[in-house]
Amino acid sequence: MTQEELSPEGSPGSTPESSAPMAESDDFVCVATRSMPTEAHVIRGMLESAGLTPHVTDEHISQMHSFLAPAIGVRVLVPSSQAEAAREAIAEWEAGAYEIEGDGDAKPKLQVADAPFYSPDQAAMLGFVLTPVFGALIQLLNARQMGEAARRFGAWVDLIALSLISGYAVLAMHEHNRVPYVVLLACLPLGLVNVLWYLIVGQKQSRLLIKTYGPHYPKRSLLVPAVIGVIAAIAVGLGLNALG
After folding, report:
1. Which of 75, 129, 182, 207 is deepest in the core (most CB within 10 A)?
2. pTM (predicted TM-score)
C-alpha cells in the first residue's frame, strides 16, 4: 500500500468527514450531484472501490432542509486529477457495468420514456409561490402520461383536496388583504401544507420516475406552466377584488 492511500491518521481506507464542505477551488471538483445523501454515498462507495478518493459534501444542509433537498443537492467531490476517471466510473456504473452477473437481486432494466416528464420535485418547489395546486396539477399531467388508471385517480384526489385547501386559504387571506397578489400571500400559510403533501405523497412520483426511467429521465421545462400559473394567480386576485 502506498503512502497516498493512507489517511492523515495512518489507517487505510479512512477518509475525512464526508460532509465537510470542500471548495472546488481547493483542487476538488464536483463529479455528481444527487437529491438524497444515500444516493451520493452509494456513488462515493463505488468510486472508492475503483481506487479513487471521493468526498460527499452538503449532506447536512440537505438533511436539515429535507423539503429543499431536490434543489440543494448533495455533491460528490474528487481531486481534480481524478475527475475524468471518476466521471468514467460513474457512467459505467449507471450503465450497469458494476452489476454482478447472475445476481437474483439485480436491478430491473430501465424503460425508455416515450416523451419527457415534468419534474415533480421542481413543481413542488414552485408550489411555494403558486400554491400546492401547481405541484398536484403537474403530477396529474405526469400520471396521465404514465398511463395507469390508479395513479391518475390518486393524482386527481390530491388535486381536488389541495384545490379546496388552497381556495379556502386564498379566500381567508382576501378578507384581510384585498390586493391583486392575494394568492402569493396565501402561499405563506400554505407552505406547510405543501411540505407535508410532498413528504407524504408527492415525492412518491419522483421516486417512481427514477425507478422506472433512471435518474436522468428526460425532463420537460416548467417555464410555460409556471407562467400560466402566475397569470392565473393574478387573475384570481383581480377577480376577487372586482367581486369585492
Report:
1. 182
2. 0.58
